[in-house]
Amino acid sequence: MAHTDGRKPIVVGVDPDPHKRTALAWAADEAKRRHLPLLLVHAQGLPTAGYRPRGGLPSWESWKDELHTAGDHTLEEAVAFVESRHPRLETSALLAEGPPAWVLREQARHATAVVVGSWHLSTRQELFTSAAVALPLVAHAACPVVVTPEPEHVTQQQPYFVVGVDGSAHSAAAVDLAFEEAALRGAVLRALYIWHPPVLGVLDEHAAVQECRRVLSETTSGRTAAHPEVDLHHEVVCGHPVQVLTEASAHALGLVVGARGLGGFSGMLLGSVSQGVLHHARCPVITVPHKHGG
After folding, report:
1. Which CATH architecture has domain 160-289?
2. Does this model's pTM top 0.70?
3. What is the DSSP code (8-state) at residue 290?
């Protein structure tokens, strides 16, 4: 929830595995940079198939008690990790019942961003297992969602962010956040317009590329005045958007894209580019919803 002073927290989904700390570290660092509180959320849905607490089949009450005890321990360890990293960071924890994607989506209503981890599940795993969190969360969250890969990737010097631009309102919202993130870290910002020529080609390729450059320039115009410290690079690249953005993410601090939450079922949850980079990008992916009327 938002604090009484109006600050919306960075929310992070906490994995019970103590070795999976990339998302937690990213969220804590982001909260520190933005001077925001951090909310750690551990969601407990139904037990996985084959779950057997000690002593065989328990009553409903004892089953819940055992899960709550484990959940409290998970959050205590996560809070200790954050405090060791940023001792003065305002941190709170929430143990919630329900599917993780639903719990985090509810918390997203009053959050600056929601951060979750990813181990690059296969498409079938993402769509058909209870562990699927990233896709439904990104499709429906009211705030930006950050999906961090495990293990942590290697960035390069000079550090940079990548943002995908296509001229839509979704990509304009992504550009706004990309400038913020680059400014917070003193990083270069690479704004990419990916041109995928039609199968039958175009009559004037030069004119088509110039139009891409015009859209790219118009989408990023005005942001440099608000963030003059950001070194902005315009790039028009020919190729498939998912492949180009995946390659650009190899050593980036982050990849920012607009989320196209279309509703529906399975593959219709997201635009194909957003879904593709979530599966293949090698750095944290930040998906940004378009704020209608904003």
Report:
1. 3-Layer(aba) Sandwich (3.40)
2. yes
3. -
